[in-house]
Amino acid sequence: MADPGTRREEFRIDGQELLGKVKELVAEGNVRRIIIKNEEGHTLIEVPLTIGVIGAILLPVWAAIGAIAALATHCTIVVERDEASGPPHS
């Protein structure tokens, strides 16, 4: 369960879009955790993110997500964000 002050979002995407979407979410900077689930709702990988996690530290994570993307047809990405630093609403 998410902590108070944390907002959860879910995205359903095709496997081939997975790595690009995860990289996009990480670049936003306000993501605390990313969970990737398969079509049945089983968690495949859970990536906790902290401020300053960049570059070479994420290389094994990108490799694992790339492997999941190659095998998965459809995935759900669950994103936990800090409520206070969420993207601006238009």
Number of helices: 2
CATH C-level class is: Alpha Beta
Share of residues in strands: 25-35%
* CATH architecture designation: 2-Layer Sandwich
Record field, number of beta strands: 4
Proportion of residues in helical segments: 25-40%
Order of helices and strands: EHEEHE
Mean pLDDT value: 80
Give me the secondary-structure category: alpha+beta
- Shape call: globular
How many domains is the backbone divided into?
1
The residue ranges in which pLDDT falls below 50 over 5 or more consecutive positions are: none
Largest sheet: 4 strands, antiparallel
- Here the CATH topology equals Dna Ligase, domain 1
Which strand order spans the largest sheet, edge to edge or round the barrel? 1-4-2-3
Instruction: Please tell me how large the radius of gyration is.
Output: 13 Å
**End-to-end distance:** 28 Å
Detailed description of the structure:
With 90 residues, the protein is α+β, with helices and mostly antiparallel strands. The chain has a single domain, classed as Dna Ligase, domain 1, CATH 3.30.1490. 27% of the residues lie in helices and 34% in strands. It has two helices and four strands. It has a four-stranded antiparallel sheet with strand order 1-4-2-3, covered by helices on one side. α1 runs antiparallel to α2. The longest helix is centred in the last third of the chain and has 13 residues. It is globular and about 35 Å long. The termini are far apart. The mean pLDDT is 80.
